[in-house]
Amino acid sequence: MARKSPEDPGRAADVDIRRGACPQRNAVVTRSGSPLGRVCVFCGSNEGARSAYVEAAVELAGRLLARRIDLVYGGGRVGLMGRIADVVLAGGGVVHGVIPRDLFRREVVHDGLTELVVADSMLERKALMMDRSDAFVVLPGGYGTLDELFEALTWSQLGIHAKPVGVLDVAGYFDPLLAFLDHQVREGFVRAAHRQLLVVDTVADTLLDRLDAAAATFAQARS
């Protein structure tokens, strides 16, 4: 981790410089023809009340490793965030963390990542994470996770990016939210076609298959 400057102990030196910039990015070999080189995972900084949430994070990490897909995430060492990063790193995978400066100063950052970028704000953090990723997977989490989910989904709706967004619905955690999205469609605030932009599954491997297919469709549409 970057060392703190002796002139200002509250500020880390070189925090805006990428650490361990990853040459593997262009060398990653995914499944034949797969457009997914990097997947961004949005998830909680807590582990939640059920063991199923941690188990799902570990399983997803294993699936990313098996497919040789880089992990992009929020850079923390705690909660589901820390769990998924630890498993990918322990398996020899590549992990890119993006953390806002305020959280960096609070020392909740993971100090063993392949690459760490410190953003000036939460807004910049989200933009950097989305720019660096080919698809998004959302695990259970709190306000911040939902904020990230809906930002990625809105950008897809508006055509700002052409990258699939998926939810791993663990133990029915997202069922009330998905029901509300259907309510929005019925009430005329969300188009049915835009509701279909969110890919939902309960199995990590199946979700990644569906995101893979969606990413290929987006790529064909752009060509």
Word description of this protein:
The chain is an alpha/beta fold and 223 residues long. The chain has one domain (14-22, 35-222): Rossmann fold (3-Layer(aba) Sandwich). The protein contains 8 helices and 9 strands. It has helices at 51-66, 79-90, 101-105, 122-131, 143-158, 175-186, 192-195, 204-222, and strands spanning 4-5, 8-12, 38-42, 70-73, 95-100, 115-119, 135-138, 165-168, 198-201. The strands form 2 sheets. The chain has a 7-stranded parallel sheet, sandwiched between helices. Strand 5 (95-100), helix 3 (101-105) and strand 6 (115-119) form a beta-alpha-beta unit. Helix 1 runs parallel beside helix 2 (79-90). The model is unreliable at 1-32 (pLDDT under 50).
